[in-house]
Amino acid sequence: MRKYLCFLLVCLWSTISVTAQVTYTANDSVAVYPGPFGYGSNMGYFPPWKDVQLAEFAAGSPEKGIHGAGVRSLRPALPEHFLEQWGYDIRIETHAYYKTLGIENNTIFIGYPSKPHQDSTFHCADRPSELFRNMYAPIWDNGENGTPVNDTNYYALYLFNLLERYGDYGRTWEIWNEPDFDFVGNGWKRPGMEGNWWINDPAPCEYAIQAPVQNYIRLLRISYEVIKTLRPDQFIAIGGIGYPSFLDAVLRNTDNPDGGNLTEDFPLKGGAYFDVMSFHVYPHVDGSMRDWNQERLAFDYYRHSDAAVDGVVAKKKEFENVLIKYGYGVNMPQKHFIITECNIPRQSFGEAIGTDEAQRNFIIKALIKVQEESVRQFCIFNLADSRKVEEAETEFHLMGMYENLEDEDQQVPNDVAIAYKTTSDILYEKAYNELETQAMLLPEGVRGAAFKDEMNQFTYVLWAETVIDRTEQATQDYTFSPLIPVDSIFVKSWDHSINPDEQLILGNTIQLTGAPVFLEVRQPEGSDVIIEQDTTLPVVQVPFRVYPNPFTSSAKIIFQLDRTREVSLEVFNTAGKLVKVFRNKEEMLRGVYTYELDDFIPSGVYIVKLTVDKEEILSKVIKVHEE
Q1: Along the chain (627 residues), what's the average pLDDT of each consecutive run of 10 residues?
Q2: Which residues, in sequence order, are bridge partners of residue 132?
Q3: Helices 356-372 and 305-325 sit at what angle, rounded to 10 degrees?
Q4: Would you call 475 helix, strand, or coil by DSSP?
Q5: With contact defined as beta carbons under 8 Å apart, do 609 and 616 qualify?
Q6: Facing residues of 417 across strands?
Q7: What is the DSSP letter of 210?
């Protein structure tokens, strides 16, 4: 049956004309990135374990008694040399099994030709290009060989064969892994420094692909044309890069082998051929956790989890600034961001950070913060330690969610796996909510965020900011903002995925430490807000609350404005009679405002009406007689 279906598919493709090919680029449109935030992991290679078993360790398999680490998406590889050797069908059942574990929307990194299909050009004296042969042959033909692509363009043919079999299992196709891996140290250099990539295109011998950057852009172009033609619902990512200067080189060049110049045959620069910005970030090695002190002629260090998280955000903004420089998010569509490798070590080598506590705190905080920064997927490095503790030589050997998997009889999770699963279990399919986060009114020294589910229920994540080098110790009291009605707070700790007990705190104040906690707030009765809205007007969401409710002597009216708006604030009785006017169509600046209902009104039921830019928000409030 499968052979028959494949025969039909070949016949169908043989009739496809050039007009069926994709007619747009990422300069024209970028589709909405569907689905929830991806709690992802790199797969790694841990023989004798098979990929299906590694996926069980990642996601969990209750029927097999495997707890898992809360992973919801993976970053597997499907290189051409592997598929050519073992057959293109070799991983179909494996990827289908991933779906049964709840693993979807994977980012699959691709490339890596077989020897017969590798470019034999020696751009360096000692080794040939790492890329594909015949990439500059036409991408398409008229179906002479039974496929819509030109079979002599080996990369295009690989993509066709790949998408035909695995198109239902990927969401994003990442073109190569770390193509900008720098052998000589020019990638990090700033403009003005000798050899920097901001001005100079990377020389082939300087970095991983051993080929001109224009050849890498050709990879992107072929990928975009073929993948978007076959599966327009899927995404193409630049390949997990580490240097903003390399991104700049891609965005300022075309795929023209003659210096990347614009011509009729090479009409667009590299940014046209990917819609997802995938990057790698390791804050313990990229300088994020130290500053040079000129007075001491030595580094000041900030080896704690919050500095590491700040480093992740700073790296994202560096890439974002390069994209903006070339018009993406300005006059061309904004690109999506994913992080396909990130972590800090749990053991210190040399000057690096490294404790279990720091690593688990970092992972939770990073997962929270990147969602605030609109990153769509985060893939932790790595699923397991690549060596046993006593055999480790660098911190990268001990960055796994599990201890080394050499022992076939057991899989021991590190603290980071427990923290990862806790975060995923509690927040999966809940979305970061900017407005509610602002309404938390976080004071200095407290960090956190609010997440909302489809039922409009909120979960809050909070922690005390760490500031002291090489310690996670931090304490801070947080009193919930009056914009957030609180009756009682249920607190879940970082290890909730294995210790499901939760602590009940009455009142609205909690003492925080450097370890994030997850809070579910039970709201008091009478805190509902009724929103009446003209659907023809833009939605204006305003945090608004009247409390306590009911009240005896006085109640506070509090609301928050995100920018300057026209505001009216009025109180009516149930007969519709105006009782009190606080504001009447007045322009008010961004901020939090508080007003008081007091003894000027008798006992009864009232409606507080807040009008913001013509949107009416109503809250019923009851004043009761004080006995």
Answers
A1: 42 44 96 95 93 96 93 98 98 97 96 98 94 98 91 98 96 98 96 96 97 98 97 96 98 97 98 98 95 95 98 98 98 98 95 96 98 98 94 94 84 96 98 90 95 92 98 96 83 96 88 97 54 41 80 86 90 88 92 82 89 88 79
A2: 118
A3: 30
A4: strand
A5: yes
A6: none
A7: -
Cα–Cα distance between 342 and 364 in angstroms, integer?
Answer: 12
- Note whether 594 and 625 are within 8 A (CB): no
Structure tokens at 530: 């009724």
Question: Taking the CA atoms of the chain, what radius of gyration do you get in angstroms?
Answer: 28
pLDDT of 523: 63
Rounded distance between C-alpha atoms, residue 101 and residue 71, angstroms: 10
d(CA 84, CA 118): 12
Q: At a CB cut-off of 8 Å and minimum separation 6, what does 599 contact?
A: 553, 554
pLDDT at 626 (0 to 100): 67
Q: Which of 455, 437, 457 is nearest to 447 (CA)?
A: 437
User: Is the sign of the CA dihedral 343, 346, 350, 353 positive or negative?
Assistant: positive
Cβ pair 529, 554 in contact under 8 A: no
CA angle 296, 300, 304 (to 5 degrees): 165
Element housing 438 (H / E): helix 434-439
The pair of structure tokens assigned to 89 is 């069908």
Tokens encoding 215: 């050849």
Of 207, 221, 236, 435, the closest CA to residue 336 belongs to: 236
Euclidean distance between CA atoms 64 and 70, whole angstroms: 15
Question: What type of residue sits at position 357?
Answer: E
Q: How far apart are CA 113 and CA 185, in angstroms?
A: 26
Q: Which two tokens stand for residue 207?
A: 């970095």
Fold equal for 431-522 and 530-623: yes
Between CA 18 and CA 140 the distance in angstroms is 8
Type and span of the H or E element at 132: none
String of DSSP letters for 487-501: SEEEEE-TTTTT---
Q: What is the DSSP letter of 20?
A: G
Indicate the fold that domain 2-427 takes in CATH. TIM Barrel (3.20.20)
For the chain, the structural domain boundaries read 2-427, 431-522, 530-623
| Whole-number pLDDT of residue 507 | 82
pTM of the predicted structure, to 2 decimals: 0.87
**H-helix or E-strand spanning residue 155:** helix 154-166
Q: Show the tokens assigned to 598.
A: 């007091």
**DSSP code for 15:** T
For 431-522, CATH number out of 3.40.50, 2.60.40, 1.10.10, 3.30.70 equals 2.60.40
If one counts every other C-beta atom within 10 angstroms of the C-beta of residue 597, the result is 22
Query: For residue 431, which of 396, 410, 404, 458 has the smallest C-alpha distance?
Result: 458
Residues 109 and 240: their CA atoms lie apart, in Å, by 9
What is the structure's pLDDT at 13?
44
User: CATH class for domain 530-623?
Assistant: mainly beta
* Residue 429: half-sphere exposure toward Cβ, Cα within 13 Å: 7
Closest CA to 105 of 229, 226, 233: 233
How far apart CA 128 and CA 130 sit, in angstroms, is 6
Q: Comparing C-alpha atoms, which of 491, 496, 495 is closest to residue 478?
A: 491
Cβ pair 462, 517 in contact under 8 A: yes
